[in-house]
Amino acid sequence: MSKKEFFPMDGDRTKYPEIKSDGTADIDLSSHKYIKLWHGPNHPGITGNMAVELTLCGDEVVEGITHVGYLHRGFEKLMERRKYIQNFPLVCRIAVPEPDYNEYNYATCIENLTGIDVPEKGMWLRTLTLEMARLQGFLMWIGGMAGAIGFGTVGQWANYCRDLVLDRFEELTGGRIYHIYILPGGVRNDIPEGFKDRMEKNLREIEGFMKDIRRAFFDNYVFKKRSVGVGYIDPAWVFDYGIVGPNARAAGFKHDIRKNYPYAKYAELDFEITTAKDSDIYTRAFLRFEELLKDIDLIRQILDKMPEKGDHISKVSNMMNLKIPAGETYVRSECTRGEYGYYLVADGSEYPRRVNVRGPSYTHGVALLEKMLVNVNIADVAQLMVSLHTYPPEIER
Amino acid sequence: MSLEDLNKKQIVSPDGEHFEVDPMNDYFCQDRPEEVKPVNKIVERFYNWARSESLWILGFGTGCGAIEMRPLMTPRFDAYRFGVQWRPTPRQANLLIVSGYLSTKTLKRVIRVYEQMQNPKFVMGLGSCTINGGMYFDSYNTIKRLDYYLPVDVYVAGCMPRPEALLAGFEELKKLIKAGKAEGANEYANKFDWYKKNQKEVIRDWDMPDYNW
Amino acid sequence: MLENIISELEKQFQLEAVDHNSSDLVFLTIDRDHAVMAIDLLKWKFGYKHFVLLTAVDFLEEGKFQLTYILNNPDTKTDIGVRVRIDREDANMVSAHHLWPTVATYQRELKEMFGIDFPGSPRLNDPFILEGWEGTPPYRRDFDTKAFAASFYHQREGRTTNDPATYMKEKLYPNE
Amino acid sequence: MGEKILFALISLFLTINYGFLMNGVIRKIYARVGRRHGIPFYQMYIDLIKTLALRTNIRHGTMFYLGPVFRFAGGVGLFLFTPVVFGSAMFGNLSFSGDVLLLLSFQFFGTLGMALGAGESGHPNAAIGVTRGLAQMTAVEVPFVLALMGVAIQYDSLSLHDIVAAQQGGIMHWTLFTNPFIVAAGMLALLGSFMRPPFDVVLAGQEIPIGPPTEYHSNYMALMLSNRAIFPMAKAILFMNLFFGGANTYWEMMIKTFAVVMWSVFVGVSFPRFRVEQSIRWFLRVPLILGILGIVYVQFFMS
To answer: Does the beta carbon of D209 lie under 8 angstroms from any beta carbon of chain B?
Structure first.
């Protein structure tokens, strides 16, 4: 008896499940070979409130179906019946970990259509908040990644660092999570005095932690063993599945909106696009870690280059009942997860005709996740989801 | 899960044995919840102290309030200091934090989760959206007040509430439990029909048993 | 750059309108039957291989839905928005899921939220976001979400509504 | 005999309390490493009272109820037949000649009982957790049994009392120094049976919440909490007797077991967790080789 016959499940795992002629997996639930298991919504190993319906054969996933909609509030509908300025409290709630990207995109949509100017300092402050949002998003993500494979220690450290960034957010904008800081024409408040020093102090502390995290987490034998070679993204999928951001960059696609489509003040900042090859979970994790370090550097650059004086917001008349001429526009920016886009259609009234949010998780979390779940060990589902950095409210809004 | 899954069906075992499965009787307990009165006042007071000092939160982030759960359990705010811990399964948890707005789809899961928790159990409503709908007052998909569907012990107002507010909420809940006023499970049992009526009015495709333990 | 592509497209298709939004973003309007063909051409010939989004806009007054496909060319860093006007009654559109697998997700959402049919798109009728929804698809403009929420859900009494401009003026600048 | 049983119960009571406090301290250490303040060290007692104070509970059948009982019985059994303090009438427990073999079966007894109970609970997460747990336990047993055999061969006895007696007379007589290979194999096996990272995928919170105890609550949970206090203690006492020269006083026992437990804690705070097949492979590599080396060493170099 050959080894192949003796271990029929050994060898090339991608053959299971067999695919029927119509393209669906050949899974006969009544054969008692499979288990249906819901991974979520009430599950600690899920990113936010969503669910993955897994069909298991032994320890291996043969089919995964994403279920979203648990967080659906109908934002795009609600925005249609609020005035432009009233929508600012709404948009930031679409993506809770990084609300600033929503505010920025939405404000820029309005500015594009009305031609409102943003003063120099306002732009710098916007860049600062966006970069801080990226930093805290990555910190939270590292915590989630470590948590997903049971490494609570690093999760605690990362969240401690995130709180330091949130402190500065609180100082700058007055809010911990939701800032409503970016408005059409600029930002709401000027930068407080001494902000730079305090930020520098925090950044230094975070850098110290990052050294530890690098040693404890990214050089960790167990983490490498768990994640190298798992959850591979083929570079050929990048366009098919609309993969953006770090997930695409880890697959070798050199695409960063901050560099390729410079917005805000990114054109004046000095940074390189981080790329990697062979996008598996470890590569993606390490790429995000490198981006995090670059974000720290970028924040320093922004604070150095920011002008001391100047208006932070331009005067916009009749902001409360802002009317926008008919037209449509699309604005994109690079959040931690990739391309964050707003498509706004104005019809000449005080209310937007339609606002559509293109969250990067929309493609990562449904089509791509379903594809990647097949042939993954059940214990790797949680870290796979975290490594894609899906965030459900973006999917369903 | 769909409604058809609850019908009786024939199942063939791997050995070729046929048997009938009636999910409603075999998988679910159909009994209504019953009020359980505390037996002894002094013992109950001691028990209440233990309950209040050992709150096990169910790890179910139902809304955006879940984002403040991590700071809550991590170095800055560290709710563990107050005996608040985190449990992944509803069986072992005794505090359900409804962290923010509930879409009807989530409400269904939350009801199931709540019913799987064991008496005594407490519910904390987090955020303005559980109180009166908050900024989603005109949303077609979120409920506007939580206390019509589940007995709520403590509300924490804010959008979103800071971790400090949550810690204050825990303290308030502890006071209520120690005073013996957090009897949500018994209230749910007493007003079971009313709660079920409200829940069914909102959840249009009710495809589960009326009570899941 | 974009002009070449548009003139190239104009040779093959009837472009109803071309709106230049900025130097690297242009919106075209193409009729329903030829839109997916044009997108196909844009993808394979002109390198618009990154599919950004697909969404619908409800023009209730005109009785039309506008579908917007935004395509991005990562090499030339330009975007083209392909707009398609379809009838509101019996709304259906040619599916584009064969070009990008991920389009199927967008089409599932549009089917659910707008009631636009995409024959042949996989898992189109599976519930995606809503559960047990009956009646008008919620993103249509004739669906009044406030009236629905007021009648369907149990409300807590005591909510008042203010016009933001006048209220803010009263509260913050009473003397002005 | 009656006196002996009474003494054993007293030592059980003392040690279970020590176990509870130790668990509290362990969680405190976890918290401190994560820069937190952590729960109060007495939190375990409150949790125990609270789980007992639940007013309702769900029973899924007899085996469901018996699962935690078996688990607890396994822990208590393991404890009762291990001499806590060498040569003490009070804390000598029910140790007898050949008890090493009995302890080996008690080790597995609880896990098997839990498997039956969790299987009856009907929750898929519990079933998956249990299959993982049994597979990993089996792999852990291999180096552990090798270490145990090595000790038995070295001291030519299957009685813990004799094994400890042979290690008396100074620190250099401990198995730790006379045969470091089997001690290394045994200590690595200890990591696997303590359910801490990197070998805690059985109870993994994120991967499969939370494995066998998914459905357990109220009294069942209380039993399992007590087991979590007594089982690691019994295990640590066993290892202390086998490798670290036993204890002559209760205080010595406390210090030595604390050190043994801390070994797993310090590994636990600094690693994420393995998948189950990875941990099985790991146990069948390094610790297995160390165990075989130890036996070879005993056979050819010590006799």
So the answer is: yes
Its ipTM equals 0.88
Q: What residues of chain D, 262 to 291, have a C-beta less than 8 Å from chain A?
A: 269-278
pLDDT lower than 50: segments of chain D: none
For C77-115, how does the pLDDT look when each residue is reduced to its tens digit (9 = 90+)?
Answer: 888 888 888 888 888 888 888 888 888 888 888 888 888
- Per DSSP bridges, beta strands A327-335 and C25-30 are unpaired
Residue type, D226: S
SS3 of residue A120 by DSSP:
helix
- Of A292, A244, A260, the residue nearest A131 (C-alpha): A292
Place of tokens 């069986």: B91
Number of CB atoms found within 10 A of residue A29's CB:
10
- Please judge whether D206 and A44 are an interchain contact, meaning their C-beta atoms are less than 8 angstroms apart: yes
CB atoms A241 and C21 under 8 Å: no
Spatial CA neighbour of A186 closest among A268, A103, A266: A103
B85: closest chain D residue by CA: D39
Structural element, H or E, at residue A33: none
Burial class (CB in 10 A: 0-12, 13-18, 19+), D74: buried
Domain holding A89, by residue range, is 75-359
Neighbouring subunits of A (3+ Cβ pairs under 8 A): B, C, D
**In angstroms, what separates the C-alpha of C101 from chain A's closest C-alpha?**
6
In a domain, A103, yes or no: yes
CA distance C36 to C29: 12
Position A53 in a domain: no
Count of C-beta atoms within a 10 Å radius of residue A41:
24
The reply to whether C174 touches chain B by the CB within 8 Å rule is no
CATH at C97: 3.30.460.80
- Hey, is D22 helix, strand or coil? helix
CA end-to-end span of chain C: 53
Classify residue B80 by burial, with Cβ atoms within 10 Å: 0-12, 13-18, 19+: buried
Give the domains, in start order, of chain B with CATH numbers: 41-200 (3.40.50.12280)
The pTM score is 0.90
Do B204 and C132 count as a contact with CB atoms less than 8 A apart?
Answer: yes
Query: Residue-wise over B113-138: b if at least 16 C-beta within 10 A, else e?
Result: bbbbbbbbbbbbbbbbbbbbbbbbbb
CA–CA distance from A389 to each of A38, A51, D33 (Å)?
20, 15, 26
Q: What distance in Å separates residue D204's CA from the closest CA in chain A?
A: 7
User: What pLDDT, on the 0 to 100 scale, is given for residue A15?
Assistant: 61
- Does C108 reside within a domain? yes
Q: What is the pLDDT of residue A14?
A: 60
pLDDT tens track for B49-67? 998 888 898 878 888 878 8
C16 assigned to some structural domain: yes
Q: Provide the chain A residues 25-54 that lie in CB contact (below 8 A) with chain D.
A: 35-37, 43-45
Does residue C133 form part of some domain? no
Instruction: Give phi and psi for A21, each to the nearest 5.
Output: -65, -30
Q: What is the pLDDT of residue A204?
A: 92
Please name the chains neighbouring D, where neighbouring means 3+ C-beta pairs under 8 angstroms.
A, B
**What are A64's strand-pairing partners?**
A54
State whether residue C1 sits within 8 Å of chain A by CB: no
Verify whether the Cβ–Cβ distance D35 to A156 is below 8 Å: yes
Tell me the CATH number at A151: 1.10.645.10
Percent over 90 (pLDDT), chain B: 5
Residue D229's φ and ψ, nearest 5 degrees, are -80, -40
The CA distance from D16 to D9, in Å, is: 10
Q: Looking at the domain assignment, is residue C34 inside a domain?
A: yes
Closest A-chain CA to D268? A151
Please report, as a single letter, which amino acid is at residue C83.
R
Three-class secondary structure assignment of D147-200: HHHHHHHHHCCCCHHHHHHHCCCCHHHCHHHHCHHHHHHHHHHHHHHCCCCCCC
